């Protein structure tokens, strides 16, 4: 079952859709700000099926999908070759709190410097420029960490800033690729809540392969 934990975020005031409030003294804007929910990160082992079907769908135009869902697998290897694995998911409940940042702040502090870590992320969309920068900085200073990042969609991939951020991820050693239909099925089987007593088979949407090829081509063009 998902658990919620409040995460303090020191940022400029933002509106419900994430835009900066140009005049924080405006009574109307202050009222909007007061009505915002607290910044929260939802954590758990399995996410609701309806969330997966909507948020992970690899559509070209992601209208209404202003959250990030991050499913992770952490494999810790000792010098003797023994591997311990753990998994879970993170969901940002408010647009100003990002799931990628939450992973580094809530999951990674438990890492043992004496172990080697292979972390795999299955993320509903690729990171924004700020989160990409955080990933790059973390990889550069954490020599016992390798990251495989699989994304359902490319976030604002036409923006030069985003393209540059994705190239920096590659340069930092992050393995970045678009989720194939088989990857969506893996997430469905391992991270999505199933009906009690039964395991429902993954039902791919009609254009899942077509959209995968579309994003794969865009990512290849960006990274070359």
Characteristic terms for this protein:
alpha/beta, 7 strands, disordered N terminus, seven-stranded mixed beta sheet
Topology of this protein?
Elements: E1 3-6, H1 27-34, E2 40-44, H2 49-55, E3 69-77, E4 83-92, H3 99-107, E5 116-125, H4 129-141, E6 145-153, H5 160-171, E7 175-178, H6 181-191, H7 208-223
Parallel strand pairs: 5-6, 6-7
Antiparallel strand pairs: 1-2, 2-4, 3-4, 3-5
Pfam families: APOBEC2 (PF18772)
Keywords: Hydrolase, Metal-binding, mRNA processing, Zinc
GO biological process, one term: mRNA modification
What does this structure look like?
- Its cofactor is Zn(2+).
- InterPro entries: APOBEC_Cyt_Deaminase (IPR050610), CMP_dCMP_dom (IPR002125), Cytidine_deaminase-like (IPR016193).
- The protein is of the alpha/beta class and 224 residues long.
- The protein has 7 helices and 7 strands, in the order βαβαββαβαβαβαα.
- It has helices spanning 27-34, 49-55, 99-107, 129-141, 160-171, 181-191, 208-223, and strands at 3-6, 40-44, 69-77, 83-92, 116-125, 145-153, 175-178.
- It has a 7-stranded mixed beta sheet with strand order 1-2-4-3-5-6-7, with helices on both faces.
- Helix 4 packs parallel to helix 5 (160-171).
- It is globular, with a radius of gyration of 18 Å.
- The N and C termini lie far apart (41 Å).
- Mean pLDDT is 78; it is low at 1-42.
């Amino acid at each position: 079952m998902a658990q919620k934990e409040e995460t303090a975020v020191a940022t400029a005031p933002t509106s419900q859709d994430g835009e900066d409030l140009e005049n924080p003294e405006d009574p109307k804007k202050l009222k909007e700000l007061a009505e915002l929910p607290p910044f929260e990160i939802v954590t758990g082992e399995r996410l609701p099926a309806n969330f997966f079907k909507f948020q992970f769908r690899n559509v070209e135009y992601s209208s209404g999908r202003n959250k990030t869902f991050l499913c992770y697998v952490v494999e810790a290897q000792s010098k003797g070759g023994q591997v311990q694995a753990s998994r879970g998911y993170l969901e940002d409940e408010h647009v100003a709190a990002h799931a990628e940042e939450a992973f580094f702040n809530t999951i990674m502090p438990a890492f043992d410097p004496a172990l080697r870590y292979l972390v795999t992320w299955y993320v509903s969309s690729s990171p924004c420029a700020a989160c990409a920068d955080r990933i790059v900085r973390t990889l550069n200073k954490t020599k016992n960490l390798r990251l495989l990042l699989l994304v359902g969609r490319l976030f604002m991939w036409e923006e030069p800033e985003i393209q540059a951020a994705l190239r920096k991820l590659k340069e930092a050693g992050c393995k970045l690729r678009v989720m194939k239909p088989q990857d969506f099925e893996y997430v469905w089987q391992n991270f999505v809540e199933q009906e009690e007593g039964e395991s429902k088979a993954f039902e791919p949407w009609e254009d899942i392969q077509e959209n995968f090829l579309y994003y794969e081509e865009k990512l290849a063009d960006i990274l070359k």
